[in-house]
Amino acid sequence: MDFSTQPVLQVSQATIFQGENPVLLDVNFSVEQHEFVFLIGRTGSGKSSLLKTLYADLPLKTGRVEIAGYHLEKIKTKEVPYLRRKIGIIFQDFQLFTDRSVQENLAFVLKATGWKDNVQIKNRISEVLLQVGLAEALTKMPHQLSGGEQQRIVIARALLNNPSILLADEPTGNLDPDVADGIFKLFQEINKQGTAILMATHNHELLRKFPYRVLKCEKGKLLDSQVHDVSFGSSF
Ligand SMILES: Nc1ncnc2c1ncn2[C@@H]1O[C@H](COP(=O)(O)OP(=O)(O)OP(=O)(O)O)[C@@H](O)[C@H]1O
């Protein structure tokens, strides 16, 4: 068994760019396997740009990032799909195929990531649906599900390949507060089972309720509540 304490994410001296424009300078932090970390900051402060860099949607031009065993400063385009199997990515807007059932949406991802055995595919889909509390949704079409249920399916999809870290960009942003609470609890359960979570949020309530570590994008820097005095205030 692997008892290594190697962080799942390590960022050193990285600059986060949008095109030619630097958005965050000299970014340094790491995330351990058991951690739940909030990413905050005003609109336009660089949260999404940081997350996009971490899943290799934006190139890392300066500095070093190791995530789920991949070094982004030297990753090749053909390796990016393999990296994305090791990290789960969840956005605010559910991007399910609207013309396919839940089962077909999930099977598509497994097949695209190399799964071939139909029995194993079926079993894995049942497992992740059970994990997100939606076993009965298997044959439903996305439009037959509520917003919160669709987001649960998106989370199930992100879990299919047992990622070591989930990157979530405002995953509760479009949901009613009660539904958002349920989704947040689901993230906490997933975290307790050993998946690190880095979640961008504007939700003050969550930050006040849950004393997780906070990374804050502010004036081109990334502040870390483990190192800096990070104010939540009204500035995010
Ligand atoms: N596709 C893009 N092309 C060029 N510039 C962009 C692009 N997306 C974002 N930016 C710019 O990069 C900077 C950081 O934006 P980013 O989307 O990372 O902020 P954010 O903190 O995620 O904001 P929000 O809370 O509104 O999602 C902003 O100045 C923004 O205008």
UniProtKB/TrEMBL annotation:
<protein>
    <recommendedName>
        <fullName>Cell division ATP-binding protein FtsE</fullName>
    </recommendedName>
</protein>
<dbReference type="InterPro" id="IPR003439">
    <property type="entry name" value="ABC_transporter-like_ATP-bd"/>
</dbReference>
<dbReference type="GO" id="GO:0022857">
    <property type="term" value="F:transmembrane transporter activity"/>
</dbReference>
<dbReference type="GO" id="GO:0005886">
    <property type="term" value="C:plasma membrane"/>
</dbReference>
<dbReference type="GO" id="GO:0005524">
    <property type="term" value="F:ATP binding"/>
</dbReference>
<comment type="function">
    <text>Part of the ABC transporter FtsEX involved in cellular division. Important for assembly or stability of the septal ring.</text>
</comment>
<dbReference type="GO" id="GO:0016887">
    <property type="term" value="F:ATP hydrolysis activity"/>
</dbReference>
<dbReference type="Pfam" id="PF00005">
    <property type="entry name" value="ABC_tran"/>
</dbReference>
<comment type="similarity">
    <text>Belongs to the ABC transporter superfamily.</text>
</comment>
<dbReference type="InterPro" id="IPR017871">
    <property type="entry name" value="ABC_transporter-like_CS"/>
</dbReference>
<keyword id="KW-0067">ATP-binding</keyword>
<dbReference type="InterPro" id="IPR003593">
    <property type="entry name" value="AAA+_ATPase"/>
</dbReference>
<dbReference type="InterPro" id="IPR027417">
    <property type="entry name" value="P-loop_NTPase"/>
</dbReference>
<feature type="domain" description="ABC transporter">
    <location>
        <begin position="9"/>
        <end position="236"/>
    </location>
</feature>
<keyword id="KW-0547">Nucleotide-binding</keyword>
<dbReference type="InterPro" id="IPR015854">
    <property type="entry name" value="ABC_transpr_LolD-like"/>
</dbReference>
